[in-house]
Design brief:
alpha/beta, Rossmann fold, 7-stranded mixed β-sheet, 9 helices, 66% helix, elongated
C-alpha cells in the first residue's frame, strides 16, 4: 500500500499571525511602561518626598520592565522555534506532494496492467470452456474404463478364490497322502509284527504238540507207577491240552489280534504324539513354574549365554501348544520371590489355543531375569491352586534352590553347595509331607478324588552340575511325573 504523509494540524499559518499579534502587544506594553516611567521621573523632581516615592515606583517599574524584557526574549525564542518548525513542515509538505504524484503515476501503471490481465482472463475463460467440454468426453471414457476395470477385478478375485480353493484342496490332499503313507508304513510294520507273532505261535504250537506227545508217551510208560503218578500226569495232560486249546483259540482269533494290534499301534502313536521330549503331555488345570534367576542368562558362572532365555521362552510356547487336554493355566515366575506373569492370583487363565501360547511367550521374554532361586515360595504359591483342582505342574529350572524358607540358623553363613543341598532336601520333604500329600477320602480309606497328588514334570536347561539333574529327576519321579534335560 502507498504511504501518504498527512500534514499535522497542530500548527498552521494562522497561528503565526497570532504569535505576531502577541509580540506587538508585548512591545506596546513595554512602551506604556516606559512612558509611565518617564512621567514618574518628572514628578520625582518636583518634590523630594514624591521623588522618593516615585523612586520606589521607578524601581518597581524597572523590575516590571526587566520581567517584560525576559518575557519578550522567551516569546522571541518560541517564535524562532515555531519558524523552524514551519520550515520543516513546508519541506515535508513538498515531499508528500511528490510522493502523491508518484503514487498517482503508479496507480495509472497498475490500472493498465489490470486491464491487460482482464483481457487475458477473458481469453482464458473461453479456453476453460473448451477444456470443460473436452473433460466431459474424457470422463465418459474414464467411466467406461472404470467399469471394465471393475469387471476385470471381479474376474481376478474369482480366479484368486479358485486358486485358493485349489491350493487348499491340494494341501488337504498332500496331508491325506502323508497320513496314508504313515498309515501304510504302520500297516507294513504291523504286518511284519503279526507275521513274527504267527511264526512264534507256530513254533509254540509245535513245542506244545511235542510236549503233549511226550507227556502221552510218559503217561503210558508210567501207568503202572500208581494212581498218584497217574493223577499227576493226567493233570499235566489237562494243562497241556488246555494250552493246546488256548493256542487254537489264539490261532483262530489271529484276525482279531491283528485288529487289536492295529488299534494298539494307533494308541501308541497318539501317545507318542502327545509327548514333549519324553514327557507325557497331560493335564487340564496346569501351572508352569518358570525359574527367572540370573543363571538363566548364563552358560556358566563366568560366561553369558544370549540364546538360553529365548530358547526357554520358545520351549514354553511349544509345550503349551502341545498339551491337547489343557483348559486352564497359570504362569508363576520365581527368583528371590514368586510372582505372576499375568498378575492374577488364585484365578485360572483360560487357554484359547496357539494365540494364548504366543502371548505367554511374548510376556515371558519381557520378564526381568535376575536374582537367586527361591523354589520354596514358587511351590508354596503353586499349591494354593490345589483347592481349585490343580492337576499338573511343569517346572522349568537350571539350578538347585539357594534361598528361601527351610534354612536353619547354623547354615546362614555356610557355602553355596551346602545351602543348596539342604534346601533341595527341604523342598522334596515338604512336597511329600505337606504340599502334595494325598488327602484322605471321606470314608477314611484311600485317597480322595480332588485331593489326589498333583503330577509334577520337570525340565532342566543347560545345567552343568549333575546334582541339578538328579534333583529334578527325583522331584518328578516322586510325584508321578517325568524329567527331561535340554541343551
Amino acid at each position: 500500500m502507498l504511504q501518504r504523509h498527512k500534514i499535522p494540524t497542530i500548527f498552521n499559518i494562522y497561528m503565526l499571525d497570532v504569535i505576531c499579534c502577541a509580540l506587538g502587544c508585548v512591545v506596546l506594553l513595554w512602551q506604556v511602561s516606559h512612558q509611565e516611567a518617564v512621567e514618574q521621573t518628572a514628578a520625582a523632581k518636583t518634590s523630594h518626598a514624591d521623588a522618593l516615592k516615585q523612586s520606589a515606583d521607578a524601581v518597581t517599574a524597572r523590575k516590571k520592565f526587566e520581567k517584560a524584557q525576559v518575557d519578550l526574549l522567551a516569546v522571541s525564542s518560541d517564535a524562532a522555534e515555531w519558524r523552524d518548525k514551519y520550515q520543516k513542515l513546508s519541506i515535508a509538505l513538498e515531499l508528500a506532494e511528490r510522493e502523491r504524484d508518484d503514487a498517482r503515476k503508479l496507480a495509472a501503471d497498475r490500472q493498465q496492467a489490470l486491464d491487460k490481465i482482464r483481457s487475458a482472463l477473458a481469453l482464458s475463460e473461453e479456453q476453460l470452456k473448451k477444456m470443460l467440454a473436452e473433460q466431459k468426453t474424457t470422463e465418459v471414457d474414464l467411466a467406461n474404463v472404470k467399469k471394465i476395470n471393475v469387471d476385470l477385478l471381479a474376474k481376478i478375485a474369482a480366479l484368486k478364490d479358485d486358486v485358493a480353493s485349489k491350493k487348499t484342496e491340494a494341501d488337504v490332499a498332500a496331508k491325506n497322502a502323508d497320513k496314508q503313507l504313515v498309515a501304510l508304513k504302520l500297516s507294513e510294520e504291523n504286518a511284519r509284527q503279526l507275521q513274527t507273532l504267527l511264526d512264534a505261535l507256530r513254533i509254540e504250537s509245535k513245542d506244545v504238540q511235542a510236549k503233549l506227545k511226550t507227556a502221552e508217551l510218559q503217561l503210558k510208560m508210567r501207568e503202572q507207577d500208581g494212581d498218584k503218578q497217574l493223577a499227576d500226569w493226567k493233570k499235566l495232560l489237562a494243562v497241556l491240552m488246555l494250552e493246546r486249546d488256548q493256542w487254537k483259540e489264539k490261532h483262530a482269533d489271529s484276525a482279531k489280534e491283528k485288529d487289536s494290534l492295529n488299534k494298539r499301534v494307533l494308541v501308541l502313536q497318539a501317545e507318542a504324539d502327545q509327548r514333549f521330549a519324553g514327557i507325557p503331555l497331560t493335564g487340564e488345570n496346569v501351572i508352569f513354574l518358570i525359574d527367572v534367576s540370573g543363571s538363566m542368562m548364563m552358560k556358566d558362572d563366568h560366561e553369558a549365554d544370549p540364546d538360553k532365555w529365548p530358547f526357554l521362552c520358545e520351549t514354553l510356547m511349544k509345550l503349551m501348544k502341545s498339551i491337547p487336554t489343557m483348559k486352564r493355566f497359570q504362569v508363576i515366575v520365581f527368583s528371590d520371590k514368586a510372582t505372576y506373569l499375568f498378575g492374577n492370583r488364585d484365578a485360572w487363565l483360560k487357554y484359547e489355543g496357539p494365540e494364548t501360547a504366543q502371548l505367554a511367550r511374548d510376556a515371558l521374554r519381557k520378564a526381568k531375569v535376575e536374582g537367586g532361586t527361591n523354589m520354596h515360595d514358587a511351590f508354596d504359591e503353586a499349591f494354593r491352586y490345589k483347592k481349585i483342582k490343580l492337576d499338573t505342574i511343569y517346572l522349568f529350572s537350571d539350578g538347585l534352590p539357594n534361598l528361601g524358607a527351610g534354612l536353619p540358623p547354623n547354615l546362614k553363613n555356610a557355602g553355596e553347595t551346602q545351602k543348596s543341598q539342604h534346601l533341595s532336601k527341604y523342598v522334596r520333604d515338604k512336597l511329600k509331607a505337606d504340599w502334595n500329600a494325598p488327602l484322605p477320602s471321606p470314608s477314611g480309606r484311600g485317597v480322595g478324588g480332588e485331593g489326589g497328588p498333583v503330577r509334577i514334570n520337570t525340565v532342566g536347561f543347560f545345567f552343568e552340575s549333575p546334582d541339578v539333574g538328579a534333583f529334578l529327576w527325583a522331584l518328578a519321579r516322586e510325584h508321578r511325573g517325568s524329567f527331561v534335560g535340554l541343551r
